[in-house]
Amino acid sequence: MGLLTGLLTFPLAPVRATVWAAEQIAAAAEREYYDPAPVRRALAELERDLLAGRIDEDAYDRREDELLDRLAQLERRERPDEGRRAP
Length: 87
Fold this sequence. Notes:
mainly alpha, elongated, Gas vesicle protein GvpG, GvpG
């Protein structure tokens, strides 16, 4: 950015900073949302709960299906071209 452009757009600096901060927050939230590690931890905790008798098998099966579906969704997002075949 040139000196003249910098001087002319100086009043917009707070807006640019706000937009930059919002973009950084959105990127961090997206990384966290699409991270498979919490889903894997939840699966491990779910199994511990079942083995400790804190939940029954029906509750375990329902929650496990939800978590496995979420994990599959995340893995498909990481490898979007894997399911496609060349004609």
